[in-house]
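Quick illustration, no need to memorize.
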Amino acid sequence: MTPLDLAWQRFALYDLNAARQQKHFKRLKNAAIVLGVVSTILTLTFTGLKEVFTDFEISWLGLALRLLVIVVPIATSLLLAADTRFKPGSKWTLLRAGSEEIKRAIFYYRARPDIPDDRSPVPATHEARLDQQVETVSRRLMRTDVNEAALHPYTGPIPPKMYGAAADDDGISKLSPERYITIRLGDQINFFQLKTNQLEKRLRRFQIWILVYGGMGAFLAAVGAVLWIPIAVTVVAGLTAYLEYQQVEQTLKHYNQVSTDLANVQSWWMALPDDEQKDRKKVNTLVDFTETILATESTGWVQQMQNALAKLREGEDGDEDDTAKNQLMTRVPTGQNGAESASSATVHGNTRPPAGQQDDGTASTTAGAQDDATPGNP
């Protein structure tokens, strides 16, 4: 295999495992949020029925509800502990960043092979330079949380299957400026524009639901149904936690900025006279600007996700106390307000999108490895 084939192999490996870790991360966070809402509903239902029916606590339904009120918060704590212990969010972010960095090295190699790497001594050949960049990324990645997980092997084609404008690209041949704009610059612009529309719709939908449940809480307070207010509050907290760990609003802002920057580069190139578009220095500038913008987007996304994960872990530290409170509420005598036991801990939840790995990130990645909120996957 050539150094380029090996680079694609490493990219596909990291891309595949980034999608796998993202899937684990989202499952844990979504389950914790749902169980948080369920825990609150169960606790309030148990408290309300206990006040209405004298013998409810010793009935089979009462015993079953009491058991669920105890078990559900414990299950939520276990999910949060698993997230903290196995760190799927951190591994997803690091693997995604690594795969995107290798992809940028590949496009540098294919679109402007004569450019030296200012970050390290210039190797004797372009192939050696590419190999050195891949080695640097891999070595750095294995010094992070990623080395605590086994990487599932990639067994698909090399180069991996791509999407969008790069679907018919062989992944190997050198790229002319026109071809580079089509499968890299233009494809990324299309990706980010598509994702911003999707993210805006998702953000608006969740914000509407937050307003609806917030209004419901105010209505319950006005009619004196104080016991059930925590349900509306918990749903609002759950929806907010979902938006927070998905980083929907922040990702929307980043994608709009990157889309605009890439479109400006495209406009600059199209405005050049034909003779200047043939100038190798101008071609290098085109590739430099494009890859720098994508690198900046990727770096910003990684930092954004790391900050979100750190904030979530801080919130989860206090969740254990809330879980204990939920369990104690099952022993509160009839007549005391059990609404306080709404498990707030369960509604905390943490996505570059630069390639993205779909949802959700950079344009065109391997099949089945598209992340939500990650840069660049179409």
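DSSP finds ten helices and no strands in the chain.
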